[in-house]
Amino acid sequence: MNIHFERPSPKEYIELRQAAGHDSKDEARAERALGRSIASLTVRDDGSKLIGMARVIGDGAYYFQIVDLTVAPEYRDTGLERKMMAELADYLTGSAPKGSEAILMADVPSIEMYKTYGFEFTYPNSISLRKML
User: CA 48, CA 97: separation in Å to the nearest integer?
Assistant: First the structure.
């Protein structure tokens, strides 16, 4: 297993998302999104197949958001998600300016994992809202 900060291809990105049960993306939009990422983390098996990925997006100064933390179904619950978060946490600690904010949206089962990396609820001071376009 190889973990690197590198950008996956749009095709790999789409295939991993679909395998993990996430919504589908089209290749042109995936290319645009991947190209605008601050950082992309990939995990490949020994045959170079993409089995995990995550991205950091944001303004690069004040706000950094972890998105697309995705692992292939056959690698779930193997500790891979934690290894990826450790790499992302180290990256942000070493790269983001002091006083900037790292944020993420978590599914309920992952909350405890994110807390071990220093993430905390923003509620009651704030709450996340979204609008699907």
Answer: 33
